[in-house]
Amino acid sequence: MVLLVPLQRVFYSGSKMAEKQKNVYVLVDAKHPGKGVRYRPSHWVQAIGSRAQVKEVSIAENVKNNTVVSIENTDVLILNWDVANGQAICGADITLDFFRSAGKVRVTELMRNGGTLLVEFQTSKGVPVQDSYDAIFGLGQLEVLSEVLDDDARRGTRATPFRRFVKHPLVPAESVLSAQPQDTNETLFFLKFTGEEEKQRRPLYERFQDSLWFGWFTWWGRGWFPLLCAELSSKHPQKYKRFPCPVLLAKTVDKGLTLASTMVIARANCTALIERILQANLDAIRRYHRNYLLLRRVVDMLYLLLILCVLTLLTWALFKLYTEEKTKDFRLILSVLSVGDVWAATLSLHGYKKFVWDRPMGFSVFQAVKAHFYISKDRGRRGFRS
User: Fold this and answer.
1) Average of pLDDT values for 21-29?
2) Global pTM?
3) Please, where are the H alpha helices in 124-188?
């Protein structure tokens, strides 16, 4: 009996050491046929190290070689930066088309198998590509900043946890995340492949190698939890500082987890975040999401109950005045007001759905109303749905 506890500890530690490593597939660009190197490098092998077994997969190469693309039989699927931004020279157009068609089935199977999908930033010259996020996550799930800002305003070097979800299982303990690349003079895009004239115009991500994110999300559907927000500087327009600007969102789907980001995760050396993702307890995350969604539904129903009570009181007041008033002219006025009461009910329910029920997770009703009047006026930014 004395040896029971020590033996239990030995067996327990042994089982933890013998725990199977996770398999990680990283979708990357195709290789240049003559040079044998990828158009845009991936840093995930170095960033993950011995934490998991990493395999780089190029959908463009598999399609050209008539090879079956099996991305559903892994634990974690990562889309490297810009791998599905539609750029033809790198084969990103093939990857984008894959997720528009057969890839949707593979992602669904990945979620059913309890896998994790992580997407790094998908941009064109530092501006997020909406088509890429629609193809990967589905139409109507997310909206990204599509306004073409000045070069230095398209990116940032720091991010902070979203205040309401600071205790989310995936949020690192650091109060501020910053990019810590090991090499700030790395060639991230082989310009010699695109012509000599392009050498004078280095890509945005190569000129700003200390970047942590490029762009952010302007709207996210129900079920998406904002985890990290962009820390904007004086170089960013003031209008975007009125509301949170998420750069990392999480959503549980079936048994799996999807993570959408506009971040540079591997190259920025976000070690704490990478460890949280690889060691994620999906049961704990689902439980956290379920509890918050339950609380959110209760609050939303209380808002609905308040609206119905106000409308009921207005209707009852008009009805009482109508029955007690004997003057025909005043009764006519009350009849007209009753028609307005119907319109008030219709507009109230429409506003409830738009600003209460459909508001992004983490937004208050006041923020939702403000976002509609400030953001939706900007043509370059979609803001809230009408």
Assistant:
1) 93
2) 0.84
3) 130-137
SS3 call for 155: strand
Query: For residue range 26-48, what is the model confidence (pLDDT) as tens digits?
Result: 999 988 787 778 888 899 999 99
The amino acid occupying position 369 is: V
**Eight-state DSSP code of residue 57:** E
What's the Cα-to-Cα distance from 100 to each of 25, 95, 134, 351, rounded to whole Å?
Answer: 19, 9, 8, 33
The sign of the CA dihedral 98, 123, 40, 21 is: negative
Lookup result for tokens 């799996």: 256
Q: At what angle do helices 92-100 and 102-112 cross, to 10 degrees?
A: 70
**Residue 17 and residue 13: Cα distance in Å, rounded?**
6
Residue 378, burial from CB neighbour count under 10 angstroms (0-12, 13-18, 19+): middle
Fold of 4-280: Rossmann fold (3.40.50)
Q: What number of residues does the chain have?
A: 386
Q: Are strands 23-27 and 76-79 parallel, antiparallel or unpaired?
A: parallel
Question: With left for phi above 0 and alpha for psi between -120 and 50, is residue 280 left, alpha or beta?
Answer: beta
Helices (H), 49-88: 59-64
